[in-house]
Write a structure and sequence with these properties.
Strand content of chain A: under 5%
Number of helices of chain A: 8
Helix content of chain A: over 70%
Largest interface: A-B, 18 and 27 residues
Distance between the termini of chain A: 49 Å
CATH superfamily of chain A: MetI-like
Order of helices and strands of chain B: EEEHEEHEHHHEHEHEEHH
Number of strands of chain B: 10
Oligomer: heterodimer
CATH topology of chain A: MetI-like fold
Distance between the termini of chain B: 34 Å
Structural class of chain B: alpha/beta
Structural class of chain A: mainly alpha
Shape of chain B: globular
Radius of gyration of chain A: 21 Å
Number of strands of chain A: 0
Bound molecules: adenosine-5'-diphosphate, magnesium ion
Largest sheet of chain A: none
Shape of chain A: globular
Order of helices and strands of chain A: HHHHHHHH
Chain lengths: 222, 242
């Protein structure tokens, strides 16, 4: 490792890591919001909403993430969609959108499973009190599904963190790209990509630990 | 208060309610008995439109329950429902269970809802369990809280679907006591139960159902003195024996 620290390009690691963190956090929130809405569509009493939900999940789960990113990156401008006039910002936003949309499909399936696992008697009790369908969702069905969805959601989000590395292919200078740049300038291949791997672990391992802690707390809360 | 006229309902090919005629007046307590699968639950679930009907007329509190224009959430505020399996919300404490509808449906403040919840928990005899989650309560306590929860919207009618069937003998009494008090206060009640003692003391009429039909509908005293219908007598014999 010693010699690598003498290179001035090392700042690329923290800045790449920061971009990876931003990509991860924003797409995590994006996929959670979109995925929850799609899950609600999928269990909706209104058939057209259910069709939209099912179509979404099938489309985004059954095509490669890389293809989706390329589609957004190369295809969006041709369709007249400009994420930004500034090229780096354009790449970043295309990656955010792609990562959010793709992982939302997986989030939707998990959230749907959690919602369906709530006892029917709970829903009936809530409705019999005069709560509307949306009120019942908000105060009874969604909170009760929370416990069941935390572990599988965590797995999706760990995958999401790793999948942010694909953004490198559409010109986002995130952690992997930082490693590539350093490698190409120093020829320290093992050190450069080894460092990249370690930095990903620094993100994903605490997530796993955090989830275990949360799971335990949720179990006690009951 | 509740008027069924020639009400029919199917579940697919199954004809569950086959021409129900039934009237429950204000302040009246009517007990429904009958063999399992005869349609008792379905019948009381039509009252708050948990089950829609196929034909006939059902008027509750002056409104045609199945009219397209009816605001079903509005209707349900006036009809409390208590289930065999309690169905308390496990993620909320006893008090929060009782407070949920007043807060989220009626828009009461947290403080006002809490006060009302404490009153109701006192009424059902367990104010000290206000901040406990349902999983830590006995079945009898849970069912009493479920009754308090149903009462929190100040309903005009209370529906009970075998409220003590899931309880051990010693807990049945504490739940029936609460129901008896309610009956004394003049609550309009429609109760599916096989608790003959409760029916005898607290009800005005007993309705016997079999295979989707009301076979007998008699004042309580007459019913127990000798049901007119052979099937009702046989069933009563079985229920009382065990
Ligand atoms: N949601 C449903 N879908 C289909 N069949 C049902 C449904 N609910 C009840 N049934 C059937 O309707 C009949 C009457 O049920 P129910 O009203 O629960 O009877 P009871 O309460 O007298 O035991 C039973 O044969 C039952 O299997
Ligand atoms: Mg039943």
């Amino acid at each position: 490792m010693g010699i690598i620290f003498e290179f001035p390009d090392l700042y690329l690691f923290p800045s790449g890591l920061w971009v990876t963190i931003q990509l991860s956090v924003v797409s995590l929130i994006g996929s959670l919001v979109i995925g929850t809405v799609i899950a609600l569509f999928r269990i909706s009493p209104i058939p057209p909403l259910r069709w939209v939900g099912t179509g979404y999940v099938e489309l985004f789960r059954n095509t490669p993430l890389l293809v989706q990113l390329f589609f957004l990156f190369f295809g969006a401008p041709l369709l007249g969609i400009r994420f930004s006039d500034e090229p780096l910002e354009f790449n970043f936003r295309a990656a955010l959108l792609g990562l959010s949309l793709y992982h939302a499909a997986y989030v939707a399936e998990v959230v749907r499973g959690g919602l369906l696992a709530v006892d029917k008697g709970q829903i009936e009790a809530a409705r019999s009190l005069g709560l509307s369908y949306l009120g019942m969702l908000r105060y009874v069905q969604l909170p009760q599904s929370f416990r069941a969805v935390v572990p599988p959601l965590a797995n999706i989000f760990i995958a999401l963190v790793k999948n942010t590395s694909l953004a490198t292919t559409i010109g986002v200078v995130e952690l992997l790209k930082a490693g590539e740049l350093i490698e190409s300038r120093t020829f320290r291949t093992v050190e450069a990509f080894g460092s990249v791997a370690v930095l990903y672990l620094l993100l994903t391992i605490p997530m796993g630990i955090g989830v275990n802690w949360l799971e335990k707390r949720l179990r006690v809360a009951r | 208060m509740i008027e069924f006229e020639d009400v029919h309902k199917h579940f697919g090919a199954l004809h569950v309610l086959q021409g129900i005629d039934l009237r429950v007046a204000e302040r009246e307590v009517v007990v429904i008995i009958g063999p399992s699968g005869s349609g008792k639950s379905t019948l009381i679930r039509t009252v708050n439109r948990m089950e829609p009907i196929d034909s006939g007329s059902l008027v509750v509190n002056g409104t045609q329950v199945n009219a397209k224009t009816v605001d079903v959430n509005r209707l349900r505020r006036d009809v409390g429902m208590v289930f065999q399996s309690f169905n308390l919300f496990p993620h909320l404490t006893a008090a929060e269970n009782v407070m949920l509808a007043p807060r989220r449906v009626r828009g009461l403040s947290e403080k006002a809802a809490r006060e009302r919840a404490m009153e109701l928990l006192t009424k059902v005899g367990i104010p000290e369990k206000a901040d406990v989650h349902p999983a830590r309560l006995s079945g009898g306590q849970q069912q009493r809280i479920a009754i308090a929860r149903a009462l929190a919207m100040d309903p005009k009618i209370m529906l009970f679907d075998e409220p003590t069937s899931a309880l051990d003998a010693e807990m049945i009494r504490e739940v029936l006591d609460v129901m008896r008090d309610l009956a004394k206060e003049g609550m309009t009640m429609l109760v599916v139960t096989h608790e003959v003692g409760f029916a005898r003391e607290a009800s005005d009429r007993v309705v016997f159902m079999d295979a989707g039909r009301i076979i007998e509908d008699s004042p309580t005293a007459e019913f127990f003195a000798g049901a007119k219908e052979e099937r009702a007598r046989q069933f009563l014999g079985k229920v009382i024996k065990h």
